[in-house]
Amino acid sequence: MAEKRSVMFVCLGNICRSPMAEAVFNEVAMQKGVADKWYAESSGTGGWHVGCSPDQRTMTVLRNNGIKYKHSAQQFHLDDLEKFDFVFGMDKSNVDFINRKKPSDNTRAKILLLGSFDTEADITGKTDIEDPYFDSDLRGFEKCFQQCMRSCQEFLDQHQ
């Protein structure tokens, strides 16, 4: 069997968007029958939440959509650019952070904006997956879930 390809999802603290994207990616890969070909992780640019579980609202949305998930937050490290084939920023500021920090243009990982694969981005004009952390309810988390679902489905359709 060929070596698994790998993806890393990166947001600010690794408790909302990037763990949701990781869980969604694994679910979509399983649904498409390609889970054995992919490895996924997530991390945050900051270390504030290292070791913490995902935000309860993230977990609620995942459970409401039938996805079981367990995760401990971790911080993004520059060597992740050599460990993973694709590193997805959840918004442009995450992508800019990674690009500013990377040691050279010759990294293994392709650094991409996850929302650039959102099939509705052409309609809405939004490629950033906005941080729902400060939302008072689940609406931002539901929106994040839907964006992650469309983006992961399209990415896997393009990279099977």
Automatic annotation (TrEMBL):
Boundaries of every Phosphotyrosine protein phosphatase I domain copy: 5-158
GO molecular function: protein tyrosine phosphatase activity
CDD domains in UniProt: LMWPTP
A Pfam family: LMWPc
Keyword line: Cytoplasm, Hydrolase, Protein phosphatase
Keyword Cytoplasm attached: yes
InterPro entries in the cross-refs: LMW_PTPase, Ptyr_pPase, Ptyr_pPase_sf, Tyr_phospatase_low_mol_wt
KW GTP-binding (keyword) present: no
Protein name listed in UniProt: Phosphotyrosine protein phosphatase I domain-containing protein
Source organism of this protein record: Aphis gossypii (Cotton aphid)
